[in-house]
């Protein structure tokens, strides 16, 4: 995880590399596939979404930016409109596939490390990665994401326990 701190003077500091970084630098990290977390230096609050929004809106070329009038109208319309835009983008980018990809990645790690065999990999993949309709209807809430995270943690613990029991026999 690439950790970046935002200071009161609006400077961004890349703690892993021990140097200041720009929004373009953050964009390069993300394009390289690096997970990024941005924290407010004073409060410790996770402000990743806010900074990534700035990265998206900054763009490399001014022609790629959203027109000022569109941004102004979004702000005036308030939270419901922004939430609708968010749902639309989530559906377009297949946000649910990110969760599936994370589960698949973890299962592949367990298989490659020899903690589960091919049969168990197939069984767990069938349980955790059912065929889904590719159209995402609604953006999950923070509560939904937290519940899913808890379920994944519990499932990982159960798999680890089963593997430990299997190793003792």
Strand order of the largest sheet: 3-2-1-4
The total beta strand count reads 4
Tally of DSSP helical segments: 7
Query: Helix proportion of residues, in percent?
Result: 55-70%
Cα shape: extended
What is the residue-mean pLDDT, rounded to a whole number? 77
Biggest sheet: strands, sense, closure?
Answer: 4 strands, mixed
Return Rg in Å.
Answer: 20 Å
Reading the helices and strands in chain order gives EEEHEHHHHHH
Structural class by helix and strand composition: alpha+beta
- Work out the strand percent: 5-15%
The separation of the N and C termini measures 37 Å
Which residues form runs of ≥5 with pLDDT under 50? none
User: In the residues, how many domains can be counted?
Assistant: 2
Describe the protein:
With 169 residues, this protein is α+β, with helices and mostly antiparallel strands. It folds into two domains: 1-62, no CATH class; 95-168, no CATH class. The protein is 59% helix and 9% strand. It has helices at residues 23-31, 48-58, 68-77, 79-92, 95-112, 118-128, 142-168, and strands spanning 2-6, 12-14, 19-21, 36-40.
Overview features:
169 residues, alpha+beta, 2 domains, 4-stranded mixed beta sheet, 7 helices, 59% helix, 9% strand, extended
């Amino acid at each position: 995880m690439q950790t970046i701190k935002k200071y009161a003077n609006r400077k961004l500091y890349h703690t892993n590399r021990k140097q200041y970084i720009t929004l373009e630098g953050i964009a390069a990290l993300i394009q390289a596939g690096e997970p990024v977390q941005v924290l407010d230096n004073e409060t410790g609050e996770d402000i990743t979404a806010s900074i990534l929004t700035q990265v998206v809106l900054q763009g490399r070329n001014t022609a790629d930016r959203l027109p000022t009038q569109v941004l102004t109208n979004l702000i005036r319309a308030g939270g419901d409109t922004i939430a609708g835009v968010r749902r639309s983008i989530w559906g377009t980018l297949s946000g649910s596939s990110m969760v599936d990809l994370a589960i698949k990645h973890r299962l592949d790690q367990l298989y490659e490390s020899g903690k589960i065999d091919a049969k168990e990999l197939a069984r767990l993949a069938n349980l955790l990665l059912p065929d889904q309709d590719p159209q995402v209807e609604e953006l999950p809430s923070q509560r939904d994401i937290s519940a899913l995270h808890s379920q994944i943690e519990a499932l990982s613990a159960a798999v680890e326990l089963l593997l430990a029991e299997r190793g003792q026999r």
